[in-house]
Amino acid sequence: MSEQPLFKVTIDHITIEVPAGTTILNAARKIGGEVAPPAMCYYSKLEGSGGKCRTCLVEVSKGSEKDPRPMPKLVASCRTTVMDGMEVKNITSDKVIDARNGVVEFLLINHPLDCPICDQAGECHLQDLSYEHGKAGTRYEFQRRTFKKHDLGDKIQLHMTRCILCYRCVFTADQLTNKREHGILDRGDHAEIATFIEKNLDNDFIGNVIDVCPVGALTDKTFRFKNRVWFLKPMDAHRDCPTCSGKVTLWNRGEEVFRVTARKDEWGEVEEWICNTCRFDTKKTSDWTIEGPRLIDRHSVISQGHYAGSVGTNKPTETFQAVHGGRLPKLLMDIHTVSDVNRPDITLSMLERPAHATDFKPNQD
Amino acid sequence: MGIKLLLEKAHVEGIRYFDTYRREGGYRAVEKALKEMDPASIVEEVKKSGLRGRGGAGFPAGMKWSFIAKPEGVPRHLVCNADESEPGTFKDRYLMEFLPHLLIEGLIISSFALGSNDTYIYIRGEYAWIVDILEQAIEEAITNGFLGKNILGTGFDCNIYVHRGAGAYICGEETALIESLEGKRGNPRIKPPFPAIQGVWQRPTVVNNVETLAAVVPIINMSGEEYAKIGVGRSTGTKLISACGNINKPGVYEIDMTISVEEFIYSDEYCGGIANGKRLKACIPGGSSVPILPANLILKTAKGEPRLMNYEGLSDGGFATGSMLGSGGFIVLDEDQCIVKNTFTLARFYRHESCGQCSPCREGTGWMEKILKNIETGKGKLSDIDLLWDIQRKIEGNTICPLGDAAAWPVAAAIRHFRDEFEWHVLNPAESQKRNYGLAHYADPIHVPA
After folding, report:
1. Are residues A232 and A296 in the same domain?
2. B175 near A CB under 8 A
3. Helical axes A94-109 vs B359-376, angle rounded to 10°
């Protein structure tokens, strides 16, 4: 392995030696922690991914030992390879933080922010990113972009409204499967992920597009609205699968397997692709050999409260009204129109006052 | 009367056809280049000429040619960028429509210099009739032995193919053009690798503008040194300017880059002054994506010197008080024009043409358009102006390709120079729907710092 020359690169004052050809992002990931820039579109397992979301922008304050000039613009760290003696500023650069805040704002202006009813909540990269870089309020005062939901086959649902066009699923469908039938239609802010036209995706490995999706745009229909991820306990398990490696993570609650996903590493990337049979159709505990609990970062919401068995099963003792002195919760945004869960029969803009929960029809189901 | 190198013969009857073009001295440069020169000396000649890319960025063409990788056994390609879609720019259309053989001649010489046996013209899809003109010209050149196998007995083979685009502005960006030429979705590639290393089908490629390639013909005819003597400083040779807007004589003019902007607008030889006896309010000197300048700054630089029509002259003062020569789409606005509406129109264009690949451009262009629409229709707020400034600042420089910058610059310049007009629009919503802000103080003499 060490035939390639090693390049010395300094990221946020931490120096590390990496083989030539490594990208700045991967060098930073070797250091780990806060130094690693966030990545919404880059996926190390997918060839050609990256460079699109611009969240991983970093400042190169010294090009290399030979040519110490700084790079004029911020560069996408996922697609820029290191040079010997390069000095990179990530979180130590105000320019980078400012640009990243801007990118997060751009990503969020057309995102529905329907996290309360989104299946991805808790393991959503955009959610993490906006916690770190987002603002409490928005400066966007216009109607958000919406799309209709589409079923890509009977197991996968595409909800374009949430999509941030990272192209990861396009690369996955392109590189894991033979037929290319999944791509981008249209241009600019009305571009959408589509199967040409409304075809089903029926490949053995197509379920992996759910795992690579950084947001809740592609969801598992066998798991939709079944449970919240932070109520589930992730377990490593395997089985003899004729198609794939059979190494998966089971998401259990009690004895019941709620969903099956591929195992993801600390950067949220799939370790080994799994087949559709494992993912969608093998949901009995008896089908699997359990290896043990899956390690989840202890800061993640998924690992919260796993010690107390009652979390998520007991109803909270205090109601909102009791805590807030009898005041009803105010809804800042009408998530119901985009979610189809609880469609109101009134238009919010017709109200003279802020909308209250009572303005909505109770859930009919 | 300025020097004309490209459009000298544009009005000769039948110059579109091979026989007339040949009789008028055409294809002499091909004979000279292929028989008397070798590829390296042609590149050297173009370098000496100081020819800069005429597509907008102004990168030295000879330098670009010398960057092309030459691995053994891998074909190289030359691609002519005829995807001219910048609002206000129509010089390439004129050149290709009237002098198709000039472009073909430039392409043959450049292909020989770069070692490209298969050369492509990527032409804007809307220029359908020009495709016919070019294909006829290529056919004529093949019949007369200037294209095809063994050109003029020198053993050099070259084919030229015309490829029509499908109507996307972004495909004028060189890597998006390459993707589109390969038959893929026209998304710009992430650089590096640059096209000179991996371009069309991963082969070394040079992409040049129509006018750049046509300018190779006079360079070979008159030698690079002679060409470099025309013009001033690093702006050598002649430049086609497509003038439009509120002027008496809109059209394509060839200038030798020594004249001043004032002369260009008011001289009868060129634009012939502002139409209907109005006064000049503002000017976009290089196609829609370059910063707009008010009358006082376009005629004189911040130092009070007359501004010259060339690369350095127009960018004098940086973006604070200058602009860019860009692609030469010269748009003149008179006192009746509304800058807010103009900026909104441009923002709408860039929103429509953003490829949607990277987030700042995809979301930012749409956001800017919506805010500008609000201000234009009298629904704006004062804070919207600062918000616009902040959005453009976060798009500029943070995108994959220059479309993000191109969308941000017009908005930035409009706010920088015409902020009072934006504020007037916001504060007088009813009145702003009825009349325009007018000339105000934009034409006042500028303060010259001591």
Report:
1. yes
2. no
3. 70
Burial tier of B311 (Cβ tally within 10 Å: 0-12, 13-18, 19+): buried
pLDDT digits (tens, 9 = 90+) for B36-54: 999 999 999 999 999 999 9
pLDDT of residue A339: 53
Cβ neighbours of B398 in A, within 8 Å: 54, 57, 73-74, 99, 102-103
Report the SS3 class of residue A352.
coil
> How far does the CA of residue A42 sit from the closest CA of chain B (Å)?
12
B155 is written with which tokens? Answer: 């053993």
Which helix (DSSP H) or strand (DSSP E) does residue A57 occupy?
A: strand A57-62
Taken in order of first residue, the domains within chain B and their CATH numbers are: 18-229 (3.40.50.11540), 235-334 (3.10.20.600), 339-434 (1.20.1440.230)
- Count structural domains, chain A: 4
If asked whether residues A181 and A266 sit together in one domain, one would say no
Of A182, A205, A223, the residue that ends a domain is: A223
**Average model confidence (pLDDT) across chain B:** 93
Q: Answer whether residue A58 shows pLDDT above 50.
A: yes
pLDDT number for residue A182? 84
What DSSP string runs through B104-172? HHHHHHHHHHHTEEEEEEEE-TT-HHHHHHHHHHHHHHHHTTSSBSSGGGSS--BEEEEEE--S-GGGG
Q: What is the pLDDT of residues B277-307, one digit of tens each?
A: 999 999 999 999 999 999 999 999 988 889 9
Domain that holds residue A45: 6-101
Residue B315 CB partners (closer than 8 Å, separation 6+): B322, B323, B324, B325
pLDDT at A98: 93
If one counts every other C-beta atom within 10 angstroms of the C-beta of residue A351, the result is: 11
For the segment A213-238, the average pLDDT, to the nearest whole number, is 91
Which alpha helices (H) appear in B189-293, and where do they start and end? 210-222, 224-229, 261-266
Give A242's contacts (C-beta < 8 A, 6+ positions apart).
Answer: none
Q: How many CB atoms lie within 10 A of CB B246?
A: 21
The pTM of the full predicted model, rounded to 2 decimals, is 0.88
Considering the domain boundaries, does residue A124 fall inside one?
Answer: no
Residues in chain A within 8 Å Cβ distance of B394: 98-99, 102-103, 105-106
Q: Which residue of A has its CA nearest to B189?
A: A51
| A214 touches B at CB < 8 Å | no
Domain boundary, last residue among A46, A76, A101: A101
The complex's ipTM? 0.90
